[in-house]
Specification:
Elements lengths: L15 E5 L4 H9 L3 E5 L4 H7 L5 E4 L4 E2 L1 H5 L6 E4 L6 E2 L1 H6 L3 E3 L6 H16 L2 H9 L17 E5 L3 H12 L3 E5 L3 E3 L7 E2 L12 E4 L17 H6 L2 E3 L28 H6 L4 E5 L8 H10 L2 E6 L9 H8 L3 E3 L8 H19 L17
Parallel strand pairs: 1-2, 1-3, 3-5, 4-6, 5-7, 8-9, 8-12, 9-11, 12-14, 14-15, 15-16
Antiparallel strand pairs: 10-13
Helix pairs in contact: 1-12, 5-7, 10-11
Amino acid sequence: MMRTLQRFNMVVDIKLVLVMDGIGEICTNILNLHGIQTIRRPNILRKDLLNDLYTYDAIVVRPDAEVTREILAAAFRLKVVALASPGCGKIDVEAASNRGISVINAPNSTVISACELICGLLLAVAKQMRPARNAFSKGIWNYGSFIGNDVKGRTVAIIGCGRVGKKVASRMTAFGMKVVGFDPLLAVTHHNGFCTMIKDLNEIWPIADYIVLLGDYVLYSIIGYDPFATEEQCKQFFLSKMTPEERPEFHQWLNIHSALLEPNRNFINADILRRCKTGVKIINVGRGGLINESDLLDALNSGQVGGAAIDVLEGQQSDPVTLTLIDHPLVIATPHIATSTADVSVHAAKEIAEQIINLVKPGTYSTMLSEINKIYD
């Protein structure tokens, strides 16, 4: 029987929470502060979990923890599975939904980390830090050989204006940049002060000095749920969310299981790069495969692209194109470190604990409930 929760007056009886796998201590501190008992089991074995799970009202897990159909079936009292991370992790969401168990996550936990890396990479590319540092390490002190650019007055295009995109927009605006954005699921109702939304991607290529790629630029929806832009969040930024009728052309692109939505593979390619400004600079912290790496390499060598920063690559360590791209003097390549900070786990533990408290005592925190599934009418 599916448990029904009321959308705007949601009160869940949670008295005992299992906190697993190295979740930050701040999570248990917040829960205990509000009278919720917690049990920490960082190294619990599967058989012990199956034996003990019937006693808990909620469990808090990290993304590498498997929450299977078998585990959920043993959880007679379980009301909430809380993932201290963005995404769905290894949770059987369908099985949880069928048992009336809410699955929540912490989508904001990595936002600042990713945003700050993007801004840092953009500035590093603008100031030619890679070639200057390489020359300096070889004893070349001729500062006149490396002429960068000021970012003030230049245009940065953000492809994918979700949580991270909006943070990047606000910071780059503070640097005096003109910020334009594209997101097919958000319609503009007002200029939000940081970013001018553009409906047609073809208008972006000729004007952008910098292009920032954030994830699959087509945001996916699951049964009306959008993990990156809720109605409330859209309103905060003076945006309105398109209805399904307004975006039928995107329905064929919905696929939560793939790491890269196939219609977006090689999204930045030779044809797109030819339509960009000469010397355009590309920053990709979204998905490996959004950029055709061979085409980007050719454009760097020809001067059509003036620099690139890449935190995600499609090729493996043995791929010759990928290796050449990493070693290119105009490229700053990092090994997928956008969310690798000591603070991310703290943010995730805090965000997930505050959501649990809001389920028990609605309105205690301003933290928004982030549900992966909907188990209410």
